[in-house]
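Before the break, one more example. Copy the sequence into your notebook; we will annotate it together after we see the structure.
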Amino acid sequence: MNRRSIGAQGEADAKAFLLQKGAKILEANYRRPTGEIDIIARQGKTLLFVEVKRRSSLRYGRPAEAVDRQKQAHILRTAQLYLQENRLADVPVRFDVIEVLPGQIRHIENAFDASAIW
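Here is what the structure looks like once it is written out:
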């Protein structure tokens, strides 16, 4: 299995997980020049911007550790574009990371915030 198909499977698992939690998937792989957001979903009144990280083991650390400050900045700028494009200035937002490991999904709510950018 190549990296792209591994990532796609992780995102499919994360979407199914979010759906089970009552979220509605609005976008997947939302791309703009500023970056990409793996999943955009709505849970209640809150808009979720979700980064998915899938690994086959913990050999190189937790998957969420790969969401460094630079990656967070790309996600934040891309989320800002999504909010502007969809006229969602007053909607509560949350930035989550979902780790997908063999037989395990870990949802980290509020993994980071927008205070560094906004």
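Residues 83 and 89 are 6 Å apart (CA to CA). DSSP finds two helices and five strands in the chain. Try to locate both features in your own notes.
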